[in-house]
Model the fold of this input.
Amino acid sequence: MDFSQEYKQKLVSADEAVKLIQSGSWVDYGWCTGTVDTLDQALAKRTDELTDVKVRGGILLKPLAIFEREDAGEHFTWNSWHMSGIERKLISRGCAYYAPIRYSELPRYYRDLDCPDDVAMFQVAPMDSHGYFNFGPNASHLGAVCETAKHIIVEVNENMPRCLGGTECGVHISDVTYIVEGTNPPIGEMGAGGPASDIDKTVAKLIVEEIPNGACLQLGIGGMPNAVGSMIAESDLKDLGVHTEMYVDAFVDIAKAGKINGSKKSIDRYRQAYAFGAGTKKMYDYMDENPELMSAPVNYTNDIRSISALDNFISINNAVDIDLYGQVNAESAGIKQISGAGGQLDFVLGAYLSNGGKSFICLSSTFKTKDGQVKSRIRPTLTEGSVVTDARPCVHYIVTEYGKVNLKGLSAWQRAEALISVAHPDFRDELIAEAEKMNIWHRSNK
Done:
C-alpha cells in the first residue's frame, strides 16, 4: 500500500499542529533525543494564550523554547521522568518537578494508571515504505504513550537513526493526527563526562576482574561505567552480551573491539537489547539500521524477569553516596534532585537473581564541595532529605578506589566494617566513631 497520499493529508506546519494544545492540557514532549524541537518553538509562540499546560518528558539535552521567558512557569509546568542538568535549573525556577518512578513500570503508568496525554509529540525518523515512523533510540515507553494519547503529532527529523527491534519501536501513520517536517537539527549528544580519571580507572579494574567470558553487560552513564567499558574493550574478554536500559558509547567501543557477539545469551541471542540510547554521533551512526541491536520497550529491558534470565549478568552503576547501613542514594543531594531512580534498582535486583550475576555500585570515596572542602561519599547516615534509590537488603557490591565489598548477608556491624574499609583513610576514624554512636560497631572491630 502507498501511504504517500495519507502523508500529504496529515502534513501540516508546526504552528498549525500545536493548535491542538489548549490550557490545562497534558502534553508529552517525547524522551531524551526524541524531544520535540520545531514543535517546541511553535508552542512557545502561543505562551500568552495558554495557562496550566502540563508537559511530560525527561533527560533534556538542550533548553526548551517554552521555558525561555521568565514568566514561563505561569504557563507551562515540566514533569520529568528523569532529570538532566537543564531540568535541575528549571526546578530552581519553579517550572519543573521530578516524577518518582521505577523505570520498568513507566509504560504501565500510561496504560493502567490514568496518565494519558491530550497530545503526544516527539521526533521520529522519516516514514518507511510500510507507513511506520521509527522512534529512533527512544523506544522506552513511547509505545504506551501512543496507545493512550488522544492526539499524536510526529516531528520528522532526517537525522534520526532508525533503530530496529521488534516491538513498540515506532508508530504507524494511521495512528498519527498530524505530521510536521522539522528543521532536521542534529540529534542531541551526551558525552561520557570527559576522560576517565585515575580513580575511575582503579574502580574499573576492580570490576573488570569480576567479569567472566560470556557475561551480559549493563552500563550506566558516567565516567566510571565508561572507564569499565574502555577497559573491557582492551581486555581479553570474549563472547559478551548486552542487555541494558541505556545504550552508551562504551558499547560501541566494546563491539568494535570484537568482544560482543551475544552468543551466550539465553534470550535475544546475538542481539544487543536496550530501551533508549544517548551518546555521540559515532554511536547514532552505529545504531542506524543495525540488525544486531534490539530497540525494545523498557518494561521488557528492565523487567527483573528478563534480566535474571540472562546468566552471568553484570550490572554497573554510579551513586552519589551511601550510608553505613548500606542504603544507596543515586539521585539527590539532600532535597535537591540531581537525576532520577531510572532503572538502577531493577538491575540491582535482576543481576543478583541471575545465575552467576553481580551488580556493582561504584563511586569515588570522596568529593569536593564548591568551596573546596573534601567530604566522604560513605557517610554515617544519608543527608537529611536524600533519597534511598537502593534499599539496604538489595545492594550487592560497593566499589571505590580503595576496594570492593559484598554486602549481601552481612549484619549491621559487618556492613559498617566493610564500608569503612573502602572509605577514604582520612575519614575512617570519624566513621568508626559515628558507627559506635549508632551501635553498629562491634567490639571485635576495635
Remarks:
- The mean pLDDT is 95.
- The chain has 15 helices and 24 strands.
- The two ends are 78 Å apart (CA to CA).
- Residues 82 and 340 are 5 Å apart (CA to CA).
